[in-house]
Amino acid sequence: MTTANFSYIASDGSYKSGELRLEHYGIAEKHHMRVGQLINKVYPDAHPDFGTAFEQGARSLGIFTKGDPRLGIVPTTVRDIMTGECMENRGAIQLASSPSGGGTIVSPNNPIGGSTPASRVFFPEVVMQMTDMTLRSNYSREMQVFNGMLAMDDTIASEVYTQPVIDTSAPEGVRRTPWAQNTLPRNMVSISSSQTSKSIATEGVGLQISLQAQAHATVDMVGIIVARQFEAELKAKLWEDIASIVSGNLDAGQAAMTPVAGTTYDSAMTGGVITQKGWLKMLWDPERKLQIDSMMMTMDDFIALQGRTGRPVAVDPRTTGANAGNLGTYGLNVEPVLTNFEVYTPNILLVPDGLWAAKHLLAFDSRYFLKRVTNSSASYAATERMVLQQSDVFVWTWGSITHRFFEDAGEVVSYA
Q1: What is the average pLDDT across 279-306?
Q2: Judging by beta carbons within 10 Å of its beta carbon (0-12, 13-18, 19+), is residue 150 exposed, middle or buried?
Q3: How far, in whole angstroms, is CA 302 from its chain's centroid?
Q4: Alpha helix locations (H) across 160-274?
Q5: What is the Cα–Cα distance from 151 to 108, expressed in whole angstroms?
Q6: Kindly report the CA angle at 170 between 165 and 173, in degrees rounded to 5?
Q7: H/E element holding 142?
Q8: Top mean-pLDDT range of 140-149, 226-235, 364-373
Q9: Which of 51, 224, 268, 315 is the most exposed place for a label (fewest CB within 10 A)?
Q10: Which residues contact 277 (CB under 8 A, 6 or more apart)?
Q11: What is the predicted pLDDT for the residue at 341?
């Protein structure tokens, strides 16, 4: 077992020992956690005045992401972490409140039987924590909105997963029947595993630092560089995933969605024109099976939607007064009240031009339409190679696939 030992101050003031195993990276990914969060849960008694267990553990190994001129502390360089010199030097820069500790970990896969510094095991998570802080301050609003539109977000430890086939046609086409005593009810929903294996491609961000540069590259510099690259990669991946929802995804085994003509809802909803009648009928589901609460469209689509024909307005911007229309002109008036018309106000995510054909709106029920699956083993495997092979090439990888879950929970409406 590959283990790095560290020390921390507990809430009662005592010095305690902890360990960060290389396997923790895989466990954390499986449970949608950062490694630091996992360590803090394993050692929840860390004294809050001195930091979390992971933060204290990093300092106990001589890893300082930020310098403190008052105490003569400078940010730790990558070379010192990779070689373990930060542990040898920690005595000179150790805070009085930070316990000493650490050591080396034996690499079972090292063919020459050498050892790997314990600080090296901390390196991937230290950089990722700094990356998270950078991304959190400028985190993509688009990513947050998209995550909120997912029906399911699963993590597995494989590059291939099998999607169960869910058949809900029975509830739609079969009505209930009397249920006699000691008899089984009629099957209404069937779930089975079929030939629906989907491949998850592995992607990542690579960083190579020469031995000369490692002596000058500090941990905080590396964190900023990796965060900037992650931000660009994740944004690009987001638009690719959204485009594949409509245009199809070979890895997911899904063909392109067939657009529904806007004239299905209103004969006048064509030629680049969105009508109020078509808009209302598109949102309303009289059978109550779906609630269209999410949409994706371009800025031009959104402007066309806002300027739709027949849209009721309290004040007409094209005139100088209230838009009275025919109401109030002849005195008495009785307005009908709809009692069973209920729709949701959809959340709209603006997408770049060119992801799909112009004048097409993607509308769906976020409870059922989209599913994302992430391969956690890709990240763990890359971290394992980085730590044990003592390479100057560092790779943070991930793998995910987003596909349509319930096909009938969304549609592409064309008003071209």
Answers
A1: 94
A2: middle
A3: 25
A4: 169-173, 211-214, 219-247
A5: 42
A6: 140
A7: helix 141-148
A8: 364-373
A9: 315
A10: 265, 266, 268, 269, 310
A11: 87
Provide the 3-class DSSP secondary structure of residue 89. helix
- Here the tokens at position 330 are 């002849």
Q: Left, alpha or beta for 280 (phi > 0: left; psi -120 to 50: alpha)?
A: alpha
Distance CA 391, CA 379 (A): 16
Query: Which residues does residue 7 pair with via DSSP β-bridges, in sequence order?
Result: 17
Most confident of 63-67, 177-181, 222-226, 358-362: 358-362
Backbone angles phi, psi at 46, to 5 degrees: -65, 140
Residue that is written with structure tokens 């997408």 in the block = 351
Among 59, 33, 55, smallest CA distance to 46 is for 55
The contacts of residue 415 (CB under 8 Å, 6+ apart) are: 262, 269, 270, 271, 272, 273, 274, 278, 304, 359, 360, 361
Size of the chain, expressed as the number of residues it contains: 416
Which two tokens mark 204? 């990542």
